[in-house]
Amino acid sequence: MTDAAPPTATIDEPGLHITGEVALGFPPPPRTYRSVAYANTSPDVEHARWLTVRPDGTVVCYTGKVEYGQNIRTGLAIEVADELRVPLDAVEVVLGDTALVPWDMGTFGSQSTARVGLQLRKAAATARKALIEMGADRLDLPASDVTATDGRIASNADSSRSASYADLIASQTITNPIEDEIPLTPKSAFTVMGADHKRIDAIARVTGAAKYSQDITLDGMLFAAILRRPARAATLTSVDASIAERMPGVAHVVHDDDLVAVLADTDEHAAAAVNMLQSQWQENAPKVSTIDLPNILLESGHDPYLMQEAGDIDAGFASAANILEATYFIPYVSNAPMEPRAAVAAWDGNNLTVWAGTQRPFGIRQELAQRFDIPEPQVRVIAPEIGGGFGSKSPYPAAHEAARLARIAGVPVRVAYTRAEEMMYTSMRPAAVITIKSGFTADGKITAWQFDAYHAGDRPFLGRRGSDTPYDSPNIKVTTYTSDSPLATGSYRSLGAAANHFAREVHIDEIAATVAIDPVEFRLRNLSHARFRRVLETAADKHGWQAAAGSSGSGQGIAIGVDVGSYCATAVTLDVKGREVQVDHVTGSLDCGLVVNPEGAINQMEGSIVMGMGTALYEAIDFQDGRVLNAGFTRYRVPRSNDAPHIDTLLVGDPETPSTGAGEPGIVPIAAAIANAVYDRTGQRHRELPLHRYLK
Amino acid sequence: MVTIHINGAPHEAPEPNRNLLSFIRFEAGLTGSKYGCGEGLCGACTVLVDGQALRACMSTVGTVAGGHITTIEGLADGDDLHPVQQAFVDESAMQCGYCIPGFIMTSVALLNREHYPDRRQIREALSQNMCRCGTYQRILNAVESAASNMAGGAQ
To answer: pTM of the prediction?
Structure first.
């Protein structure tokens, strides 16, 4: 664990190495791509190593993706095991260590199975082809007369004539490029893929052996506690460290530009001393609070982006039989992963190693190289197990803080955020206000749809996601705006799609109630998209949907959604007692195309549903004058086991359709399904989240 | 100076006021017990003291002096997982896994005091812990299954 020196390339070691293109459909990093992008290969080699069949016949594959709960380690191992005809336990997956794996943009957008999985399958198929040729030679048979099976190449005519991968490779060192057009195993021949598997990392997770960035310690390491600003945009005007310096265990008080920190022998000593720093601040945050937020979003909306347009929206409303207008509000919510972020940095001369639980190890490597003006290969970023992130661990200031402090202290330094720091000084899911105006006929056909979404924050694409309507209408105008944000916003599972879906799917329910048509029937009348219809019909059917118009009292609700190319419908049944909502039963139907690992996809659906339930019912970050008022679990409620519903998940995708993401779609319809079910139960129509605050 | 036993091994702690979780993680080097909130609200730091669940983040070494502490690392018997650990594996009751040691320790404590818990009792007992990945259904299934496998305290 104290190896701070970047390792050298290892494709010189014995084994069958499969190399291939680095950038996988994403643009390579600017300029630096050719010289440093290759990670596990020496810089002058065109291709990175993706997979090695070791001399003992086991397989190791490499990707710059990271594991933060989505179980890609198992999913990727399954794909490789199937293509290489080896048992699942013969496959090791190396993730997120910039010294060992191919360059990768980062783990987000549910891309791992779709892109990296395909690349690793090609690498494995390329290795299998080479092993078949070697085996045919060894057995003195034509390649067409042998088969790869269970880690061996065997004669088709006489299966007792065979050679294991280990025998074939022995001490050779072979390097072959990935054949991009190599035939992949057809679905009919899958033996590992598509079946249920235990996670390959499950034992480490139940024994405490799994190491997260919070768990990394190095010899001689000091624990840091950082002086945090009291409010957003506050600047430090003075600091007096005279007391803190004399506190027990304190080694240094560092004041480096905007970074003030105590370094001590224990985390407790550091935390005690940082509290004794006497600091004064100039506060610059706008004097606004939670209550002002909807108006801020509406009034500051700028840079309108026309996301979708059809027909003539004004003519559509002029001729509409009925018109409904409503405004929806979605507050800031905290990603609040269970692991507050942490980083440990160690310098060896001008070589820097940082353990950081980030979704972007290569992005952080580039940032650190620029900060310290050293070549990227001299920076090694290792992402160990990551205790959740849900999007927020792409930016990772803890890595910078640890590296700066370690440089100054001359010893390794650990920076570990407290719960309050994690919820106060990272990013929130953007708040949004969405206005919808719809026109429709008395028999329930939408004839005009105008959707204006005002999402907080300066990254406009966040709010565009999922704003376009899947419903048929001759006249459509969907516009997204970028609005000022009193708090720092960032990525969160599905980005703005969850907010857009909440507004749209509640509004659809409102139209259905207005024309007195059952919500499922109403959706089907306005939905010609086959994949949407299938998820909707299967979810309603499996859930035992009882067709009813308006508020039936039974507490059922439904909504549909699409995200990262996957389609989803969610039906819920719940009860309401005062302001407490007990969600009893949820049925989620997911079409993510070919399912590699059903257990993984179902687990992700369940997680998305529970997380989205929190945003529907309880979660909202409150702020005043740049301060987060509820940065901790005393005043920020999240779902617990006694809130958890029974969840049935249906995987209804067509196996011939390419795999799309499973980690995010489940969160987009759930909040609307719950709000619609609350209406069905109580007759109260709520257009603002979280419902716990607004229920009467 | 106080002595505490962690997974059977004695540890000397010079400062009785030392935070128990910090001591377990950084002095004893047992990082399976996690920091999640530091306020006793999430349960990620749960350990057993003489078989009962304790939030290590809210305790000091002095308060458990003389006691026998079991952490997640001390639960398995060599390669043989505790039935609760095995049930979490079998039910794939985990995603990121950060909360899982705490859930397992809370579950073991529950099964120590209540050999035949029903689903409602399990839900209530485990509501002291948080899983942000939302794997509750699997966790509840795992504990129910472990309870049934242990059939009345055979541990």
So the answer is: 0.94
Cβ–Cβ below 8 Å for B18 and A336: no
From the CB of residue B8, how many other CB atoms can be counted at a distance below 10 Å?
9
Q: What is the pLDDT of residue B49?
A: 97
Residues of chain A contacting B70 with CB distance shorter than 8 Å: none
**ipTM for the whole predicted complex goes beyond 0.85:** yes
Radius of gyration of chain A (CA): 27
Contact residues for A373 (Cβ-Cβ < 8 A; gap 6+): none
Domains A214-283+341-416 and A290-333+428-694 share a fold: yes
- Inter-chain contact B123–A603, Cβ cutoff 8 Å? no
Question: How many residues does the structure list for chain A?
Answer: 696
Overall residue count recorded for chain B in this entry: 155
Domain chopping of chain A, boundaries: 15-207, 214-283+341-416, 290-333+428-694
At A110 the pLDDT is 58
Q: What is the pLDDT of residues A463-493, one digit of tens each?
A: 999 999 999 999 999 999 999 999 999 999 9
* Contacts A416 to B, Cβ<8 Å: 35
DSSP-derived letter for residue A255 is E
**What per-residue confidence (pLDDT) applies to A1?**
37
Per-window interface: B 28-57 vs A, CB < 8 A: 29-39, 41-42, 44
Distance from CA of A249 to the nearest CA of B (A): 12
Residues in chain A within 8 Å Cβ distance of B34:
212, 214, 338-339, 387
How confident is the model at residue A32, as a pLDDT? 37
Looking at the domain A214-283+341-416, which fold is it? Aldehyde Oxidoreductase; domain 4 (3.30.365)
**Do residue A646 and residue B137 have CB atoms under 8 angstroms apart?**
yes
Q: What are phi and psi of A334, to 5 degrees?
A: -95, 135
- At residue A665 the predicted structure's pLDDT band, cuts being 50, 70 and 90, is very high
Q: What is the pLDDT of residue A24?
A: 53
Put simply, the chain B residues between 52 and 111 with a CB less than 8 A from any chain A CB are 71-73, 75-76, 81, 85, 88-90, 92, 94-101, 104
All domains in chain B, ordered by first residue = 2-71 (3.10.20.30), 83-150 (1.10.150.120)
Would the pLDDT of A30 be above 80?
no
The phi and psi torsions of A460 (rounded to 5 degrees) equal -60, -30
Look at B132 and A647 and tell me if their CB atoms are within 8 Å. no
Q: Which two tokens stand for residue A430?
A: 């953007």
Domain A290-333+428-694: CATH architecture, name and number where available:
2-Layer Sandwich (3.30)
A15-207: which CATH architecture? Answer: 2-Layer Sandwich (3.30)
**Looking at the partner chain, which of B41, B81, B134 has a beta carbon nearest the beta carbon of A609?**
B134
* Pure H helices in A193-292: 202-207, 267-274
Of A266, A606, A634, the CB nearest to B134: A606
Contact criterion met (CB < 8 Å) for B126 and A641 = yes
Q: How far is CA A597 from CA A133, A186, A594, A627, A653, in A?
A: 30, 16, 9, 43, 13
pLDDT reported for residue A9: 41
